[in-house]
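User: DUF6192 family protein, Streptomyces tendae:
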Amino acid sequence: MTEEIESADKVGSVSVNRYAEIVAELRKLVETASRIQFTVGDYALEVEPMREAGGQERSDALFRVKDSLFRLAEDIGLSYAMVDKARWTASKWPKDRRAQGVSFTVHNILAAIADDEERFTTILNPPEGKSRWTPDEANRRVGRQVVKPVTPQEKVSAIHSLAKDDEVAGRVTGDLLRRPEVVAQGRDEDKVRVVEELTREDQVAAAVAPDFLRRPAVVARVAKADKVKVVEELTRDEHVAAEVTTGLLRRPDVAFKAMSDDTARHQVNRAQVDQGRQAREHFEETSPVAPAIRNIDRSVEFLDLVTACHAFVAAAGRVVPGMRDRQLGDDERVIVHENVARVRATLDWIETAVDTGKVDVDGELAKLLQGE
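Assistant: Predicted structure for DUF6192 family protein:
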């Protein structure tokens, strides 16, 4: 403290010399106050000596001690807590072990040192670089929180103490998380835990997630199974799913792998058929040229049918003459006969459609045409 006084022109609103005079006077008063407090403690010990710990008798004695000390405190105009504190401190410091020039407050703090000899030695040896004990140095010695934290750990402890209230902790955390240099020093597991806690609310999580997913470096670190799950969740909406699927199928490698799945391929084929049907129905319902197109379609169907018959006859004309003098096996003859039966049934179906316009296929004909 002397060095600090000498290095400054003023302390607060007073000169250095006046400050030194004030300190000297107050130290005398503190010594007097300490003697008074120890005296209160000594008398309180005389009224109620310290008791041995343990047992039911100890519990009963505590009630009697408190009653006696409470009466004493009221009779002298002090609080029970002050009298009890003075009694306990006096019990830890016999009169011949009380250090001259050391405040009662410091004696009270260092009384927490359990070993008597260690306690008596400690009070006679101030911390290195200090000329006398202070309450903060005493608290630091016994591992308690200090009023003016100096080391990082002391500052952390002070913050924890001040932030015990949830509302205070919430505000402090918000302020700290706005400082990038502070966040950068956090451990990865702590950062993950903070993010998990902050995103428990769905609205907050929804606001944060898109920002994460826009960062390729972040997405690249996500496990494959988690990526699939994310895509599934994001594409539950059919409109979103349609846009995403369209984009994916434009990638040849993705489309190739997707079509290796039978169900996916079937759904794509079905979608193509449905798309074509819907487009045709829409055209026929809305286009003014639809009737003309229908006539053309009928002409095309007629030409297709004639072409199919011509192709069959031409193919038979080429193949059958080549079978001259050739004897087919039993299995081969069965297969040819089955196909001839299908051809006959098909021809009958064609005649019925041409004569009546009915193209319905009964069950037996359907099985026959399908080769069943």
